[in-house]
Amino acid sequence: MQTGSTPQNDRTGDSALGELGAQARGASGGLLPEIWMQDGAKRVEHVLARLLRAEHEAELMAAMRYATLHGGKRNRALLCLAAGALADTPAHMLDDVGAAIEMMHACTLVHDDLPAMDDDVLRRGLPTVHVKFGEATAILVGDALQAHAFLTLASLDAPGDNRIALVRELAQAVSAEGAAGGQAMDLSLVGKHVELDKIVEMHRMKSGALVRASVRMGALCVIAEDVAHAALYCALDHYSACFGLALQVIDDILDVTADTATLGKTPGKDAAAQKPTCASIMGVQAARQFALDLLRDAGEAIAPLGPRTERLAQLLQRANAYLFRHAPCA
Questions:
Q1: Contact between 306 and 232 (Cβ < 8 Å)
Q2: 8-state DSSP, 174
Q3: What digits encode the pLDDT tens for the residues 247-276?
Q4: 80 burial class (0-12, 13-18, 19+ CB within 10 angstroms)?
Q5: Is 169 exposed, middle or buried (0-12, 13-18, 19+ CB in 10 A)?
Q6: 245-255 burial, b for 16+ CB within 10 Å, e for fewer?
Q7: Sign of torsion, CA 292 194 237 10?
Q8: Mean pLDDT, residues 29-46
């Protein structure tokens, strides 16, 4: 394991930019969003490639790499890195935690795509894992990715208490109170008329719980959740609750309005499967305003924490721009 202190300019990976560093900073002195996001996603993908080594031509590892290394916006890893910048978490630690989060996210996607679940044949513009490798291998891919995520956190260069907190946080996010419970609720609602509150509850569990964990884990690497830091975690939780729900509402909207090239998966599946969503219950324009309101609320939640939340705010701005680009106001 790596030990010793991390230089200040390496805390969020800025030193990895080399000579680009001076050119990549905006008027405020902060790193421009497109630079740190691209750099952060690239670093996390390098860690994923290292942790999921293809030393042998085993189909399982090949399928695990296929599920994690072939595209994706890396939103959850970037949330972890952005919260880590707020907490001064060392870059090498954030990269490993971000990789663990992405492995867990890939696990949920692989299982979500299975015929017994949402039965999707496309993910990120490519055949889903069960289509390419078979259903049995896809189940094992999800199981193995979950195990590798926890192995990564257990081996982290961090004090034992921090590692335990990180493992607990990620486990909670995919538990019966998190993604697994949310997926079960999602399946139970198919073909039913339900109130918006029920859809919101399902989204907060199925996808929102992992968003919340991603934000919290960036800080938990170095800052204990205790009375002294209650205000910090309260603000981060409000931010992630709003942002996580906004991302899912945007996804619901794009399922109605976007094409396969934009989505990377088959559009119109929610309606075809008779799945109630925010867009189907509220209507597209009302759902769009709901997402915008949530993004605004997320920004207000972290405003009291000051300028160190710049990267968390930039992720909100990117989501806002994405919504305007792919679902313009009617």
A1: no
A2: T
A3: 999 999 998 887 776 666 666 677 777 888
A4: buried
A5: buried
A6: bbbbbbbbbbb
A7: negative
A8: 87
> Which residue in this structure is represented by tokens 């989505």?
263
The enclosing H or E element of 81 equals helix 75-87
Cα distance between residue 173 and residue 187, in whole Å: 18
Cα separation, 224 vs 230, in Å, equals 10
User: What pLDDT, on a 0 to 100 scale, did the predictor assign at position 25?
Assistant: 52
| pLDDT for residue 6 | 34
Neighbours of 140 (CB within 10 A): 18
* Contact assessment for residue 107 and residue 142, using Cβ atoms and an 8 Å cutoff: yes
The pTM for the full model equals 0.89
Identify the helix (H) or strand (E) that includes residue 295.
Answer: helix 284-302
Q: What are the C-alpha distances in Å from 224 to residues 10, 73, 162, 165, 235? A: 22, 29, 7, 8, 15
Whole-number Cα distances in Å, 206 to 22, 82, 98, 271? 40, 22, 19, 19
CA quadruple 184, 261, 140, 117: dihedral, nearest 10: 20
**Cα separation of the two ends of the chain:** 54
Taking each helix axis from N to C end, the angle separating 91-112 and 33-51, rounded to the nearest 10 degrees, works out to 70
Tens of pLDDT, residues 282-318: 999 999 999 999 999 999 999 999 999 999 999 999 9
Q: How many residues does the chain have?
A: 330
Tokens at 303, concatenated = 């405003």
User: What Cα–Cα distance (Å) separates residue 50 from each residue in 36, 95, 199, 241?
Assistant: 21, 12, 38, 32
Instruction: Give the long-range contacts of residues 256-261, CB within 8 A, separation 24 or more.
Output: 256/280, 256/284, 257/284, 257/326, 257/327, 258/326, 258/327, 260/122, 260/125, 261/125
